[in-house]
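Supplementary Note 2. Why include the ligand at all?

Several targets in our set were suspected to adopt different conformations when bound, so apo predictions alone were not considered sufficient. For every target with a known small-molecule partner we therefore ran a joint prediction. The input for fructose -6-phosphate is given below.
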Amino acid sequence: MTEIAIVKTHAEAGRIAADLIVAALATRDEPTLGLATGSTPLPVWSALAERSLDLSAVRGFALDEYVGLPPGHPESYRAVVDRDIVAPLGLDPRRVRVPGDDECPLTEAGERYEAAIADAGGIDLQILGIGRTGHIGFNEPGSSLASRTRLKALTPATRADNARFFDSIDDVPTHCLTQGIGTILDARVLVLLAFGETKAPAVAAAVEGPLTSSCPASAIQLHRRAVVIVDEAAAARLEHRDYYRFAWDHREIATA
Ligand code: F6R
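The joint prediction is reproduced in token form.
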């Protein structure tokens, strides 16, 4: 079941996602939140921070991490997670994991991360952005839809998109550790956000296209509770967007 919210403002998207997070975190004493970095989820963290909740018991698992940046690099996802999420939300940094953060060989990092997620009882709600390539996490086209956390190469398109965070594209790492599509699908609730016209083709492929590893985000169609929150520009290529609007407005009666 995929529910689609087409919102007027990014603040509204943040509030809807924050409501879903609050509901998911209430299901367990030590709940787990799957964390996405990048620009898109920033309104979610702001909306959540505004609620001044005690989130010190929450465990966090980042979707991905670059490989090859020096420790403490400000654009490492460890640093981004600490800056954008842990500090403003008041999470306990010791409870927040990023792939590869336990200093083991890269070949073992995926399995260790999977074990840590399993030890925490799985992920209650996973926040997702989407890349122009249709990636979720850094599962680029061709990723196995059953994949688990592992080392991946980034596409030139993703490196170009993320060059805005670095001095030049040459400084953007070529590889990453990322949760797999199978890992992501194991989360109990998925919340995927996308803003802007550059995301519109990937959103349409993910929501309405065929299930295919050419658009790894299309795997969300297999999930029983996926909520997609998009602005008008990112929704522009959705064939059934009027229906989605109607279904979202009547979601108390029936789900999309
Ligand atoms: C980030 C991640 C990526 C981003 C995606 C969109 O942890 O896994 O999938 O969500 O690249 O990035 P933004 O939001 O910056 O457009």
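The beta strands are 2-7, 32-35, 59-62, 64-67, 96-97, 125-128, 150-153, 175-178, 189-194, 226-231. The chain is about 35% helix and 15% strand. Comparable summaries for the other entries are listed in the accompanying table.
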